[in-house]
Amino acid sequence: MTVPTIDQQGLSSEAMLKMLTDLKQYMQMQQDKTRESQFEGLIRKREQNRFYISFCGHFSAGKSTLINHLCGKSLLPSSPIPTSANIVSIANGPIGAVVYERDEAGDSATKKSIPLEELAAYCVDGKGIERVEITHELPFLGDDGVLLDTPGIDSTDDAHHMATESALYLADVVFYVMDYNHVQSEMNLSFAKQMKERGKPLYLIVNMIDKHREEELPFSTYREGVASAFHAWGIKPDGILYVTMKAPQHPHNEYGKLRALVAQLIAQGAELSSYSVDEAARHLLEEHREARAQQLAPRIAELDEAMRGEGAALAEQRAELQRIVAAAKEEPQRLQAALRREVIGIVDNANVTPAATRDVAQHYLQSRAPGFKVGFLARASKTAAEATARLDKLHVELVSSVSTQLERHLQSLLREAVSKGGYSSAPLLSPEIDAIHLELTPEWLAGQVNTAAVFGNEYTINYMKQVANEIKVIYRKKAYEVIDLIMDEAEKSMKQQEQAHLQEIASLSERLAAYDGIVQLKAQEAKEDQQLYALCGSVRARLPELPDLANLAVMSDNEPTTVPLPTASIDVVLQASHTIEHLDQQGSDASIDVPSSQVKLPRADEVKQRAAAFLSAASTMEEIPALKQIARSLADKANRLMNQTYTIALFGAFSAGKSSFANALIGERVLPVSPNPTTAAINRIMAPQPNWPHGTAKVTMKKQEALLSDVIYSLELLGVKVTQMSEALQAIARLSPDQVTAKAKPHYSFLRAVLKGWSDAEPLLGSEVRANHEQFTAYVAEESKSCFIEGIELYYSSPLTDQGIVFVDTPGADSINARHTGVAFNYIKNADAILFVTYYNHAFSHADKEFLLQLGRVKDAFELDKMFFIVNAADLASSEEELNGVVKHVESNLLAHGIRHPRIYPISSQNAADGKLKKDQALLYSSGILPFEQEFTSYAFQELSQIAIQSAEAELQRGIHALDRWIKDMQSSDEERSKRISHLLDMQVKAMNAIEAGATEELQREIRREISELLYYVKQRTMYRYSELFAYAFNPSVFRDEGRDSKTIMAAAWKELLAMISFDLEQEGLATTLRIEKAIHSLISAEYVKWGQIIQSFVEDYEYEGFEPSTLPTPAIRVEVEAPEVSIKLLSGFFKNAKQFFESDGRSKLKNELERHISEGVSREMIKLEAKLIEIYCDYLEAAIQKYRGLQLEGLEEHIQGSISALEMKVDYEFLYAKRQSLAVK
Q1: Residues 676 and 731 in one domain
Q2: Do the Cβ atoms of 1003 and 1106 come closer than 8 Å?
Q3: Would residue 1121 count as lying in a domain?
Q4: Which of 263, 249, 204, 319 has the alpha carbon at shortest distance from 70?
Q5: Nearest-angstrom CA–CA distance, 990 and 988
Q6: Is the pLDDT of residue 679 over 50?
Q7: Are 171 and 276 in contact, with CB atoms under 8 Å apart?
Q8: Which CA distances in Å does 742 have to 82, 201, 291, 737, 1128?
Q9: Which of 268, 286, 306 is where one domain is finished?
Q10: Residue 471 domain-assigned?
Q11: How far is CA 806 from the centre of its chain?
């Protein structure tokens, strides 16, 4: 129902208070305690004439800092770590602070005064403290102005959401504060849309614009992008302001305009407050209606379920029968009236005296005239006979006319009526119809003659009229009598039919009892709505004209409304980048050598020198036939070492600054950097190749099938099903932002980009495109291009890439492409190093946490610790203490995700890039990147290379030992050599038989046991996370979407929970494959060594190649947990309204109910996954056994043949000795 509005200034203050009081009493009567309390708050606000300006935004968007600057005092704790955990209000008044402490039950709060210096601890206590009220000498707020600081809207804590909601309904104006780098996040767009839908004056504040780099993106372009993003979602804020607290002199800083705006709004406070209270009351009214509907929903659903969807059809059937019964009751009377009308029509229109009959009548009447005679003689008898003859003729003529013109028509009419009625007594009515007949006699006709009349033409006419009228009267009467008989039959028939219909109606009514209950409930709803709207009234306040930002005078800091805080500015040398572990060991005074502005890598050159030496040794050994296997192995290891590349995968959220950090490492601005999501595909940066010179890029376009799959997936999330690209493009064109939920907005953006770029991209799909650097930048940064790209390889020369390092810039963990979990996992598994980049003042998102959890799962499966954690934009730190606090905070978060002893580096990518480009040693040093580069290059070129060098060195020594043996054998006597040859051949046969005899069944059983045990714990860990994932799926923020009903929201939350559980199992499954591979390598390695030892027990001087595990492909793991028995009815049965669900026991009961169904679904998926992994890895195991046993047999054969060749003196002693000497200097 739409609330009627009258565009007026609104109610008077007294009328408004009465309306609020009436609505509060109504809520009290309806036992809606939540709304009752909120109306009480509106009444109190109205009575106190308070004007509230609410500051909302993400954690660490800078709300508290901004409020502190407006107040000119550090009243609120501010930190890059999330601080405000409850509502804090700030008003003008005597200096002091009051907190409201919750009791243990959380039902009430106790007021307590506290010193201002203890305020910080209370502001961050979201559980024990309900709200905090601060008063201070703040004349710019006047007597009525109040500033509200709220918890971050991205919190998943129920108490935080409730606190934010309680602030919003009182807020008269909302300032929504956003980090410069996260403006276009889906949560920002969703929240802004909700505020506008509530009618709140909304101002967007883009904070921290000091992060902007004009050389990367013109600020005007950035502003246009922000405005366009909100416009695309149909959001029209009342203003957008760009501010920075860190750089007051920034050319685009509009902080002065913000202060002027606040002052102007406070001046308009009374008008804005009236409007806000009126809007809030109406919003609460709608919330009550929704809550009531949600309370009734389970009962309606139960009744609807009882009808099994047949209610509407059966109700229509009953209504039709009722219409038939009502019509049937009137049918006899209607039939009688209708037949009588038709009889009258037939009778009145019947021409029973046509002209011919009138002529005969006139001839007859002449015979009745006085003096009538026949013949000259005029005999009386002859005259009488003539009169009789004329009468008879008239009689015949008239009877014929009456029969044809009247009688037959009446009988036909009534027979048809009887026939149509289908009366059971129709045969009895037939004689009655036949009896509609008048026996006209000559005598009757003669009797109608008025002998006193003057006979002539006039009388003939009158006579005929008289006769006709008399006949018609008689026929009408007879017809009416039959009609009455028909009506009696119709009534009898109606009664019979009515009885049957009434029985059927009664039967339907019994079946429709549930449906009637629904109708009654809805009727009651409509009645209550009328009562509500009557209380609310039709006079609606109008939003006053808001200040025009374009013409607003900018307030300088020395104007008296506020005392500005000094801007925190320090030169922090980011020594925290030695990692926490190193800080603890070395202390903050640890010195760092400052190299030149470009990274020097002497270690890489040493690696290549060693590789060259190994290649030379391999070439020497290849000249000796018996050393060819060792030579091949050594050459292979040397070539890998010579051409070794180091894949460095960068992960992190979309605005963590991965691209900026990659630029800092490369030393040039290679990748485009934007505060908007850019990396939609995998970007690889590597050294130039022969056909790909510096600055060129190979762009691999998606295949049409892959693109269609992505498009179908995104459309399905928006509730649209298609199968072909042509259908998809039409569907995308019809999409509207209003149809899209907050979580689906990235998918909407992706689809719009596909539509925009389709015509250009279609011919290129499935191909490789060569691009220059300018084109590369467009492919990466423009979403209408990047959405079609599978991956890009940029060939770029830099100190790091030239040494073999390959950078891989991945889509954000929160990207829509994150569903391709296998791609990310393969980089985690196969990359030589993983760099996880997080932003200095951002809390980890849900997607970040899931990714870190996966890193924690697999960390111990790697031989080396290859993970590095970058805290980007560390130059935002206002002090070294704050910097180390942030690093400690990141460390504790990593520890919570299973990552112990992490290497954490706070770095300023911007300063690092600027320092390298400008050759500014001080800026480069302060950026914090140098310690990271030192440790990272040491890891890449020492730790990683050392393994390969040791392996090659072992092969070289194996070859040298073989030469030493052979040289020694050649110095033996002929007899000794002959015995030695026989012994070797005998031992070879025995050794071969011994290792061939080994059974593999026990190894197979061991792997099966390992997989079963690993998956058992997978289920345990997933179910351990169930409570966390349930709370995330069913959290208060999802119920803010006022465009959807509770059933739809519950269904969507359930679907998301299933998806998260499935995702968790997939990630666990992928991590499990690493553990299985490790177990297989351990088993095979043990068998390989055992075979070598067996051979050595027969051939004591045998040396075998070191074990190198094969790289196993990661199997595709797809998990889809299902619980078909969970219906919408079951879900909605636990939800009456948001208060009952979150604050009472609704959610906990649903959680317990769903846990059983989830557990059963997980078990089913684990059974399938176990069977799949056992089949795959048992096959791998069998193949590996054959491979590595073959390597030992091949090594044995070469060893024996080499020894025999030496013993038989088939090779020149001097030749071998010279080669041995040559190898000694390699």
Answers
A1: no
A2: no
A3: yes
A4: 263
A5: 5
A6: no
A7: yes
A8: 23, 21, 22, 10, 22
A9: 268
A10: yes
A11: 34
Distance of alpha carbon 736 from alpha carbon 713, whole angstroms: 18
CB atoms within 10 A of CB 71: 23
Which of 238, 268, 298 is a domain's end point? 268
819 and 763 in a common domain:
no
User: How do residues 878-916 score in pLDDT, each as one tens digit?
Assistant: 778 878 888 888 888 888 888 888 889 999 888 898 899
Residue that the structure tokens 């409304």 belong to: 561
Q: Give the three-state DSSP class for 621.
A: helix
Residue identified by tokens 């993106």 is 217
HSE, CB side, 13 Å, CA atoms: give it for residue 493.
Answer: 19
Residues in the chain: 1226
**Per the structure block, which two tokens stand in for 44?**
């109190």
Indicate whether 640 belongs to any domain. no
Q: Dump pLDDT digits (tens) for 219-259.
A: 998 898 888 888 877 788 999 999 998 888 999 999 999 99
Question: What is the percent of the chain where pLDDT is above 90?
Answer: 14
901 with 959, same domain?
no
pLDDT higher than threshold 90 for residue 766: yes
Asked if residues 278 and 271 have their Cβ atoms less than 8 Å apart, the reply is no
Whether 454 and 362 share a structural domain: yes
The two structure tokens encoding residue 677: 């999501």
Note whether residue 976 is domain-resident: yes
Q: Are residues 1153 and 1077 in the same domain?
A: yes
d(CA 858, CA 851): 11
Structural domain harbouring 722: 696-794
Rounded to whole angstroms, how far apart are CA atoms 1032 and 845? 12
Measure CA 871 to chain center: 28
Pairing type for strands 51-57 and 145-149 reads parallel
Q: Which residues pair with 135 in a beta bridge?
A: 91, 96
Handedness of CA 166, 168, 173, 174 (dihedral sign): positive
Alpha helices in 602-671 (DSSP H): 602-621, 628-642, 658-666
End-to-end CA distance of the chain: 91
819-855 pLDDT, tens digit each = 555 677 788 888 888 898 887 766 566 677 777 887 8
Cβ partners under 8 Å of residue 478, min gap 6:
410, 435, 436, 437, 438
Residues 1026 and 1171 in one domain: yes
Q: How far apart are CA 902 and CA 890, in angstroms?
A: 10
* CA pair distance 858, 872, nearest whole angstrom: 24
Question: What sections of 837-944 are H helices per DSSP?
Answer: 846-858, 880-896, 909-918, 921-927, 929-938
Query: Is a pLDDT exceeding 60 seen at residue 587?
Result: no
Element (H, E) at 420: helix 408-421
Same domain, 917 and 969: no
CATH of the domain at 186: 3.40.50.300
Q: For residue range 374-401, list pLDDT tens digits in order.
A: 766 657 778 888 888 888 888 888 888 8
pLDDT tier at 16 (50, 70, 90 boundaries)?
confident
Strand partners, 649: 808, 834
For the chain, what is the domain count? 5
Q: How far apart are CA 395 and CA 445, in angstroms?
A: 7
Question: pLDDT tens digits for 1068-1100?
Answer: 999 899 899 989 998 999 999 999 999 989 988
Inter-axis angle of helices 909-918 and 929-938, nearest 10: 90
Q: Alpha-carbon distance 964 to 1216, whole Å?
A: 9
Distance (Å, whole) CA 138 – CA 654: 40
| Span 1040-1052, average pLDDT | 72
Per-residue pLDDT, 609: 84
Say whether both 1019 and 1058 belong to one domain.
yes
| Strand-by-strand arrangement of the 789-795 sheet | 768-771, 696-701, 789-795, 682-686, 805-809, 646-651, 833-839, 867-872, 904-907
Residues 6+ apart with CB under 8 A from 1128: 301, 1047, 1050, 1051
Q: Within a 13 Å sphere around the CA of 523, how many CA atoms are in the beta-carbon half?
A: 6
pTM score = 0.65
